[in-house]
Design brief:
Blueprint: E1 34-36, E2 48-49, E3 57-63, E4 71-77, E5 80-88, E6 101-111, E7 118-126, E8 131-138, E9 162-164, E10 168-173, E11 190-198, E12 207-217, E13 255-258, E14 266-271, E15 277-284, E16 296-307, E17 314-322, E18 328-334, E19 362-367, E20 385-393, E21 405-415
Antiparallel strand pairs: 1-12, 2-3, 3-6, 4-5, 5-12, 6-11, 7-10, 7-12, 8-9, 8-11, 13-16, 14-15, 15-21, 16-20, 17-19, 17-21, 18-20
Protein backbone atom coordinates (compact mmCIF):
# COMPACT_ATOMS: atom_id res chain seq x y z
CA UNK A 1 0.00 0.00 0.00
CA UNK A 2 1.62 3.26 -0.99
CA UNK A 3 0.95 6.94 -0.89
CA UNK A 4 -0.90 9.27 1.43
CA UNK A 5 -4.23 7.59 1.47
CA UNK A 6 -5.82 5.26 -1.02
CA UNK A 7 -7.88 5.74 -4.10
CA UNK A 8 -11.56 5.74 -3.12
CA UNK A 9 -14.11 4.46 -5.59
CA UNK A 10 -16.95 6.94 -5.25
CA UNK A 11 -18.50 6.45 -8.64
CA UNK A 12 -21.56 8.64 -8.32
CA UNK A 13 -25.08 7.72 -9.49
CA UNK A 14 -24.57 5.58 -12.55
CA UNK A 15 -28.14 5.49 -13.73
CA UNK A 16 -30.44 4.81 -10.80
CA UNK A 17 -29.10 4.93 -7.25
CA UNK A 18 -30.36 3.15 -4.16
CA UNK A 19 -33.26 0.89 -3.27
CA UNK A 20 -34.22 -2.64 -4.24
CA UNK A 21 -32.27 -5.88 -4.47
CA UNK A 22 -29.19 -6.22 -6.69
CA UNK A 23 -29.98 -6.92 -10.33
CA UNK A 24 -27.92 -8.92 -12.74
CA UNK A 25 -26.53 -6.80 -15.53
CA UNK A 26 -26.21 -8.73 -18.80
CA UNK A 27 -25.07 -6.09 -21.26
CA UNK A 28 -26.10 -5.50 -24.85
CA UNK A 29 -23.37 -5.01 -27.49
CA UNK A 30 -23.23 -1.34 -28.57
CA UNK A 31 -24.38 -0.33 -32.06
CA UNK A 32 -20.96 1.27 -32.64
CA UNK A 33 -17.67 1.71 -30.79
CA UNK A 34 -18.47 5.36 -29.98
CA UNK A 35 -19.53 6.07 -26.40
CA UNK A 36 -19.85 9.84 -26.93
CA UNK A 37 -18.26 12.73 -28.79
CA UNK A 38 -20.71 15.05 -26.97
CA UNK A 39 -22.03 16.44 -30.25
CA UNK A 40 -25.58 15.60 -29.09
CA UNK A 41 -25.11 16.62 -25.44
CA UNK A 42 -27.97 18.42 -23.66
CA UNK A 43 -28.65 19.66 -20.15
CA UNK A 44 -26.26 20.63 -17.40
CA UNK A 45 -26.57 18.43 -14.28
CA UNK A 46 -26.38 15.81 -15.51
CA UNK A 47 -25.25 16.50 -19.06
CA UNK A 48 -27.08 13.91 -21.16
CA UNK A 49 -25.71 12.30 -24.32
CA UNK A 50 -26.65 9.70 -26.92
CA UNK A 51 -29.64 8.67 -29.01
CA UNK A 52 -30.86 5.17 -29.85
CA UNK A 53 -29.51 2.82 -31.05
CA UNK A 54 -26.24 4.28 -29.71
CA UNK A 55 -25.20 4.36 -26.05
CA UNK A 56 -27.36 6.73 -23.99
CA UNK A 57 -26.29 8.16 -20.64
CA UNK A 58 -25.18 11.18 -18.67
CA UNK A 59 -22.44 12.71 -16.54
CA UNK A 60 -21.73 12.65 -12.80
CA UNK A 61 -19.17 14.30 -10.51
CA UNK A 62 -18.17 13.48 -6.94
CA UNK A 63 -15.70 14.27 -4.15
CA UNK A 64 -14.74 13.23 -0.62
CA UNK A 65 -16.12 15.12 2.35
CA UNK A 66 -14.69 18.63 2.51
CA UNK A 67 -13.64 18.80 -1.15
CA UNK A 68 -15.46 20.30 -4.16
CA UNK A 69 -16.38 18.07 -7.15
CA UNK A 70 -15.13 19.05 -10.61
CA UNK A 71 -17.43 21.30 -12.64
CA UNK A 72 -18.59 19.87 -15.97
CA UNK A 73 -19.85 21.73 -19.04
CA UNK A 74 -19.94 21.35 -22.80
CA UNK A 75 -17.04 23.20 -24.40
CA UNK A 76 -17.80 24.70 -27.79
CA UNK A 77 -15.97 26.65 -30.45
CA UNK A 78 -17.28 28.71 -33.31
CA UNK A 79 -17.78 25.53 -35.34
CA UNK A 80 -19.85 23.74 -32.67
CA UNK A 81 -19.58 21.45 -29.67
CA UNK A 82 -16.21 19.83 -29.19
CA UNK A 83 -16.06 18.09 -25.82
CA UNK A 84 -16.71 17.73 -22.09
CA UNK A 85 -14.99 20.62 -20.29
CA UNK A 86 -13.67 19.69 -16.83
CA UNK A 87 -12.48 22.25 -14.28
CA UNK A 88 -11.06 20.82 -11.03
CA UNK A 89 -10.39 23.06 -8.03
CA UNK A 90 -11.21 20.77 -5.10
CA UNK A 91 -9.51 22.59 -2.25
CA UNK A 92 -7.14 20.91 0.21
CA UNK A 93 -7.62 18.31 2.93
CA UNK A 94 -5.43 16.53 5.48
CA UNK A 95 -7.92 13.62 5.62
CA UNK A 96 -6.42 10.77 3.60
CA UNK A 97 -9.71 8.83 3.63
CA UNK A 98 -11.51 11.67 1.82
CA UNK A 99 -8.77 12.92 -0.50
CA UNK A 100 -10.53 11.97 -3.74
CA UNK A 101 -12.74 13.56 -6.40
CA UNK A 102 -13.61 12.91 -10.01
CA UNK A 103 -16.23 12.62 -12.72
CA UNK A 104 -17.60 10.13 -15.20
CA UNK A 105 -20.24 8.94 -17.62
CA UNK A 106 -23.07 6.59 -16.63
CA UNK A 107 -24.88 4.40 -19.16
CA UNK A 108 -28.66 4.03 -19.05
CA UNK A 109 -28.32 0.37 -20.07
CA UNK A 110 -25.63 -2.20 -19.36
CA UNK A 111 -23.14 -2.59 -22.21
CA UNK A 112 -21.45 -5.79 -23.38
CA UNK A 113 -18.08 -4.68 -24.82
CA UNK A 114 -16.46 -8.09 -25.17
CA UNK A 115 -15.82 -7.29 -28.86
CA UNK A 116 -13.33 -4.65 -27.66
CA UNK A 117 -10.17 -4.64 -25.56
CA UNK A 118 -10.49 -1.26 -23.88
CA UNK A 119 -11.55 2.39 -24.02
CA UNK A 120 -9.92 5.36 -25.70
CA UNK A 121 -10.52 9.10 -25.46
CA UNK A 122 -8.89 12.39 -26.39
CA UNK A 123 -7.83 14.79 -23.65
CA UNK A 124 -6.64 18.34 -24.32
CA UNK A 125 -5.85 21.26 -22.06
CA UNK A 126 -4.03 21.51 -18.74
CA UNK A 127 -3.93 18.46 -16.45
CA UNK A 128 -2.38 20.70 -13.80
CA UNK A 129 -1.04 19.03 -10.67
CA UNK A 130 -4.00 16.72 -10.07
CA UNK A 131 -3.49 12.97 -10.39
CA UNK A 132 -5.90 11.27 -12.80
CA UNK A 133 -6.80 7.57 -13.12
CA UNK A 134 -9.27 6.11 -15.61
CA UNK A 135 -11.68 3.35 -14.58
CA UNK A 136 -14.38 1.29 -16.29
CA UNK A 137 -17.34 0.68 -13.97
CA UNK A 138 -18.62 -2.89 -13.98
CA UNK A 139 -21.74 -4.20 -12.28
CA UNK A 140 -19.57 -6.45 -10.10
CA UNK A 141 -17.49 -3.53 -8.74
CA UNK A 142 -20.51 -1.33 -7.95
CA UNK A 143 -22.57 -1.39 -4.75
CA UNK A 144 -26.36 -1.66 -5.18
CA UNK A 145 -26.51 1.37 -2.85
CA UNK A 146 -24.89 3.41 -5.63
CA UNK A 147 -26.66 1.77 -8.59
CA UNK A 148 -29.43 -0.82 -8.59
CA UNK A 149 -27.48 -2.77 -11.20
CA UNK A 150 -24.52 -3.15 -8.83
CA UNK A 151 -23.85 -6.59 -7.35
CA UNK A 152 -20.86 -5.88 -5.07
CA UNK A 153 -21.64 -6.72 -1.42
CA UNK A 154 -18.20 -5.90 0.06
CA UNK A 155 -17.79 -3.11 2.61
CA UNK A 156 -15.87 -1.10 0.00
CA UNK A 157 -16.72 -1.37 -3.73
CA UNK A 158 -14.73 0.37 -6.46
CA UNK A 159 -13.31 -0.46 -9.90
CA UNK A 160 -9.66 -0.97 -10.74
CA UNK A 161 -8.03 1.95 -12.53
CA UNK A 162 -5.17 3.00 -14.81
CA UNK A 163 -3.09 6.22 -14.50
CA UNK A 164 -3.55 9.00 -17.09
CA UNK A 165 -0.36 11.08 -17.24
CA UNK A 166 -0.51 13.00 -20.52
CA UNK A 167 -2.81 14.72 -22.99
CA UNK A 168 -3.58 13.44 -26.49
CA UNK A 169 -5.38 10.26 -27.53
CA UNK A 170 -5.25 7.87 -24.59
CA UNK A 171 -5.86 4.12 -24.97
CA UNK A 172 -6.75 2.21 -21.78
CA UNK A 173 -6.97 -1.60 -22.07
CA UNK A 174 -9.50 -3.23 -19.75
CA UNK A 175 -6.71 -5.55 -18.58
CA UNK A 176 -4.55 -2.64 -17.35
CA UNK A 177 -6.93 -1.83 -14.47
CA UNK A 178 -5.48 -2.54 -11.02
CA UNK A 179 -6.57 -2.18 -7.42
CA UNK A 180 -10.33 -2.82 -7.69
CA UNK A 181 -12.52 -4.11 -4.88
CA UNK A 182 -13.37 -6.78 -5.88
CA UNK A 183 -10.61 -7.29 -8.49
CA UNK A 184 -13.04 -7.96 -11.34
CA UNK A 185 -12.67 -7.04 -15.02
CA UNK A 186 -15.88 -7.97 -16.88
CA UNK A 187 -16.52 -6.20 -20.23
CA UNK A 188 -19.95 -7.94 -20.37
CA UNK A 189 -21.42 -5.74 -17.63
CA UNK A 190 -20.23 -2.14 -18.13
CA UNK A 191 -22.43 0.54 -16.58
CA UNK A 192 -20.16 3.55 -17.14
CA UNK A 193 -16.66 5.00 -17.12
CA UNK A 194 -14.99 7.48 -14.79
CA UNK A 195 -11.90 9.59 -14.26
CA UNK A 196 -10.76 9.34 -10.64
CA UNK A 197 -8.66 12.25 -9.36
CA UNK A 198 -6.48 12.93 -6.33
CA UNK A 199 -3.81 15.17 -4.87
CA UNK A 200 -1.13 15.26 -2.21
CA UNK A 201 -2.46 15.64 1.33
CA UNK A 202 -2.73 19.25 2.45
CA UNK A 203 -2.00 20.63 -1.03
CA UNK A 204 -4.79 21.83 -3.34
CA UNK A 205 -4.42 20.95 -7.03
CA UNK A 206 -6.07 22.51 -10.09
CA UNK A 207 -6.77 21.27 -13.61
CA UNK A 208 -8.67 22.51 -16.67
CA UNK A 209 -9.07 20.16 -19.64
CA UNK A 210 -11.48 18.78 -22.25
CA UNK A 211 -12.46 15.13 -22.83
CA UNK A 212 -13.74 14.09 -26.26
CA UNK A 213 -14.27 11.12 -28.59
CA UNK A 214 -14.78 8.55 -25.83
CA UNK A 215 -15.07 5.14 -27.50
CA UNK A 216 -14.46 1.43 -27.12
CA UNK A 217 -11.37 0.24 -28.99
CA UNK A 218 -9.30 -2.76 -30.00
CA UNK A 219 -6.14 -0.64 -30.39
CA UNK A 220 -3.09 -1.14 -28.18
CA UNK A 221 -1.58 1.78 -26.23
CA UNK A 222 1.93 3.00 -27.08
CA UNK A 223 4.65 2.06 -24.58
CA UNK A 224 4.79 4.57 -21.70
CA UNK A 225 7.62 7.11 -21.62
CA UNK A 226 10.24 6.66 -18.89
CA UNK A 227 9.34 8.48 -15.66
CA UNK A 228 11.08 11.80 -15.04
CA UNK A 229 14.02 11.76 -12.63
CA UNK A 230 13.06 12.58 -9.05
CA UNK A 231 13.49 16.18 -7.96
CA UNK A 232 13.56 16.47 -4.20
CA UNK A 233 14.78 19.83 -2.95
CA UNK A 234 14.07 19.19 0.76
CA UNK A 235 17.19 18.16 2.70
CA UNK A 236 16.67 17.47 6.45
CA UNK A 237 18.44 19.96 8.70
CA UNK A 238 18.77 17.29 11.40
CA UNK A 239 18.44 13.50 11.55
CA UNK A 240 15.66 13.85 14.15
CA UNK A 241 12.06 13.59 12.93
CA UNK A 242 10.59 13.93 16.43
CA UNK A 243 11.57 16.26 19.24
CA UNK A 244 12.51 19.15 16.95
CA UNK A 245 10.82 22.04 15.19
CA UNK A 246 13.06 21.33 12.17
CA UNK A 247 11.27 18.08 11.33
CA UNK A 248 10.50 17.30 7.68
CA UNK A 249 7.53 15.14 8.75
CA UNK A 250 3.86 16.22 8.82
CA UNK A 251 2.38 14.34 11.82
CA UNK A 252 -1.00 16.10 11.73
CA UNK A 253 -1.47 14.81 8.17
CA UNK A 254 -1.16 11.14 9.22
CA UNK A 255 -3.30 8.66 7.30
CA UNK A 256 -4.60 5.12 7.72
CA UNK A 257 -5.50 2.38 5.26
CA UNK A 258 -7.04 -1.09 5.37
CA UNK A 259 -8.11 -3.96 3.14
CA UNK A 260 -11.83 -4.30 2.32
CA UNK A 261 -13.79 -5.67 5.26
CA UNK A 262 -11.25 -4.66 7.92
CA UNK A 263 -11.30 -1.70 10.33
CA UNK A 264 -8.46 0.86 10.10
CA UNK A 265 -6.12 1.61 13.01
CA UNK A 266 -6.95 4.48 15.34
CA UNK A 267 -3.95 6.84 15.33
CA UNK A 268 -3.31 9.86 17.58
CA UNK A 269 -0.22 12.08 17.13
CA UNK A 270 1.68 12.62 20.39
CA UNK A 271 3.36 15.95 21.20
CA UNK A 272 5.93 16.99 23.82
CA UNK A 273 5.22 19.83 26.30
CA UNK A 274 7.20 22.17 24.01
CA UNK A 275 4.81 21.27 21.12
CA UNK A 276 7.40 19.30 19.20
CA UNK A 277 6.24 16.00 17.73
CA UNK A 278 6.86 13.00 20.01
CA UNK A 279 5.38 10.14 17.96
CA UNK A 280 2.15 8.18 17.34
CA UNK A 281 -0.26 6.34 19.63
CA UNK A 282 -1.82 3.43 17.72
CA UNK A 283 -4.79 1.24 18.66
CA UNK A 284 -6.20 -1.44 16.40
CA UNK A 285 -8.91 -4.06 16.36
CA UNK A 286 -9.29 -4.74 12.63
CA UNK A 287 -11.53 -7.82 12.74
CA UNK A 288 -10.87 -11.15 11.05
CA UNK A 289 -10.37 -12.38 7.50
CA UNK A 290 -9.36 -15.59 5.74
CA UNK A 291 -8.26 -13.81 2.55
CA UNK A 292 -4.44 -13.47 2.51
CA UNK A 293 -4.67 -10.99 -0.38
CA UNK A 294 -6.79 -8.60 1.69
CA UNK A 295 -5.33 -8.93 5.19
CA UNK A 296 -3.43 -5.64 5.50
CA UNK A 297 -3.98 -2.53 7.62
CA UNK A 298 -1.64 0.33 8.32
CA UNK A 299 -0.86 3.98 8.88
CA UNK A 300 1.63 6.55 7.70
CA UNK A 301 3.04 10.04 8.06
CA UNK A 302 3.77 12.15 4.95
CA UNK A 303 7.01 14.04 4.65
CA UNK A 304 6.91 17.66 3.51
CA UNK A 305 7.16 17.35 -0.26
CA UNK A 306 9.98 15.07 -1.35
CA UNK A 307 12.95 14.54 0.99
CA UNK A 308 16.56 13.84 0.02
CA UNK A 309 17.87 11.43 2.68
CA UNK A 310 21.11 10.42 0.90
CA UNK A 311 23.11 11.64 3.90
CA UNK A 312 21.55 8.92 6.10
CA UNK A 313 21.67 5.12 6.24
CA UNK A 314 18.33 4.19 7.76
CA UNK A 315 15.52 4.97 10.21
CA UNK A 316 15.41 4.47 13.99
CA UNK A 317 12.39 4.56 16.33
CA UNK A 318 11.10 3.06 19.58
CA UNK A 319 8.06 0.76 19.85
CA UNK A 320 6.38 0.43 23.28
CA UNK A 321 3.22 -1.47 24.13
CA UNK A 322 1.32 -4.51 22.91
CA UNK A 323 1.69 -5.48 19.22
CA UNK A 324 -0.85 -8.30 19.55
CA UNK A 325 -0.87 -10.96 16.82
CA UNK A 326 -0.52 -8.58 13.87
CA UNK A 327 3.09 -8.58 12.56
CA UNK A 328 4.35 -4.99 12.17
CA UNK A 329 6.66 -3.82 9.34
CA UNK A 330 8.14 -0.47 8.35
CA UNK A 331 7.68 0.79 4.82
CA UNK A 332 9.27 3.83 3.18
CA UNK A 333 7.39 5.39 0.28
CA UNK A 334 9.77 6.85 -2.32
CA UNK A 335 8.82 8.82 -5.39
CA UNK A 336 9.60 6.05 -7.91
CA UNK A 337 7.36 3.50 -6.11
CA UNK A 338 4.54 5.96 -5.46
CA UNK A 339 1.67 6.36 -7.92
CA UNK A 340 1.42 9.57 -9.91
CA UNK A 341 -1.98 10.26 -8.35
CA UNK A 342 -0.18 10.68 -4.98
CA UNK A 343 2.63 12.83 -6.39
CA UNK A 344 5.02 10.01 -7.29
CA UNK A 345 6.42 8.97 -10.66
CA UNK A 346 5.20 5.33 -10.82
CA UNK A 347 2.97 4.78 -13.87
CA UNK A 348 2.80 0.99 -13.59
CA UNK A 349 -0.51 -0.75 -12.87
CA UNK A 350 0.89 -1.76 -9.46
CA UNK A 351 2.98 0.59 -7.28
CA UNK A 352 4.25 -0.81 -3.96
CA UNK A 353 6.73 0.57 -1.45
CA UNK A 354 9.53 -1.66 -0.07
CA UNK A 355 9.11 -2.92 3.50
CA UNK A 356 11.24 -4.28 6.34
CA UNK A 357 11.10 -7.65 8.06
CA UNK A 358 8.75 -8.06 11.05
CA UNK A 359 9.57 -5.68 13.91
CA UNK A 360 9.63 -6.26 17.68
CA UNK A 361 9.12 -3.92 20.62
CA UNK A 362 12.00 -1.74 21.78
CA UNK A 363 14.34 0.61 19.95
CA UNK A 364 14.53 -0.51 16.32
CA UNK A 365 17.05 0.49 13.63
CA UNK A 366 16.06 -0.32 10.06
CA UNK A 367 18.81 0.24 7.45
CA UNK A 368 17.55 1.49 4.08
CA UNK A 369 19.17 -1.60 2.54
CA UNK A 370 16.94 -3.87 4.66
CA UNK A 371 13.75 -2.67 2.96
CA UNK A 372 12.86 -4.71 -0.14
CA UNK A 373 9.93 -5.83 -2.26
CA UNK A 374 8.96 -2.51 -3.84
CA UNK A 375 7.40 -2.20 -7.29
CA UNK A 376 8.73 -1.12 -9.76
CA UNK A 377 11.90 -0.38 -7.71
CA UNK A 378 12.53 -3.17 -5.18
CA UNK A 379 14.83 -1.02 -3.03
CA UNK A 380 14.39 2.43 -1.48
CA UNK A 381 15.27 5.50 -3.56
CA UNK A 382 16.65 7.46 -0.58
CA UNK A 383 17.07 10.65 -2.58
CA UNK A 384 13.30 10.91 -2.98
CA UNK A 385 11.42 9.88 0.18
CA UNK A 386 7.75 10.90 0.50
CA UNK A 387 6.19 8.96 3.43
CA UNK A 388 6.99 6.94 6.54
CA UNK A 389 4.57 4.02 6.68
CA UNK A 390 3.87 1.08 9.00
CA UNK A 391 1.87 -1.95 7.84
CA UNK A 392 0.39 -4.86 9.82
CA UNK A 393 -0.97 -8.16 8.54
CA UNK A 394 -4.11 -9.70 10.06
CA UNK A 395 -3.92 -13.49 10.74
CA UNK A 396 -5.75 -15.53 8.10
CA UNK A 397 -5.12 -19.12 9.23
CA UNK A 398 -8.28 -19.33 11.33
CA UNK A 399 -6.18 -20.53 14.29
CA UNK A 400 -4.13 -17.50 15.43
CA UNK A 401 -6.21 -15.29 17.76
CA UNK A 402 -7.72 -12.15 16.26
CA UNK A 403 -5.41 -9.17 16.36
CA UNK A 404 -5.91 -6.50 19.03
CA UNK A 405 -3.06 -4.12 19.80
CA UNK A 406 -2.15 -0.81 21.44
CA UNK A 407 1.34 0.64 21.11
CA UNK A 408 3.31 3.84 20.57
CA UNK A 409 6.02 4.71 18.08
CA UNK A 410 8.31 7.49 19.37
CA UNK A 411 11.82 8.93 19.03
CA UNK A 412 11.78 8.68 15.25
CA UNK A 413 14.91 9.76 13.39
CA UNK A 414 17.09 9.09 10.43
CA UNK A 415 20.35 7.25 11.14
CA UNK A 416 23.51 9.17 10.16
Amino acid sequence: MTGAGGMTGAGGDAGGAGGGPPMTCPGTPPASALISDFSDATGSDPINFGTAPNIIGGTFAYSGTGLTPPTLSIDSTGSGINGLHVVANPGATADGANNFFGFGLFFDSCVDATAYTGVQFTITGNLGNCGINFATNFSETTSPNDDTRGTCTLASCFPGSTPVTSTGTIIIPFASAAGGSPAVIDPRSIIGVQWQMGQALGAACTADFVINDVAFTTALPPPPPPPPPPACPVVPATPALTGTFNTVAAPNAFYTFQAPGLAPPAVVPLFNPDSTWQGLDVSLNPGATTDPGNAFIGFGVPLFGCVDALAFSGVRFTINGDLGTCPLQLGLVAQDDNATIFGGSCIDSLCLNPTSSVLSSGTVTVPFTALTGGTPDRSVETSALMDLQWQLDVPTDGVTPACSAHFTITDISFVP
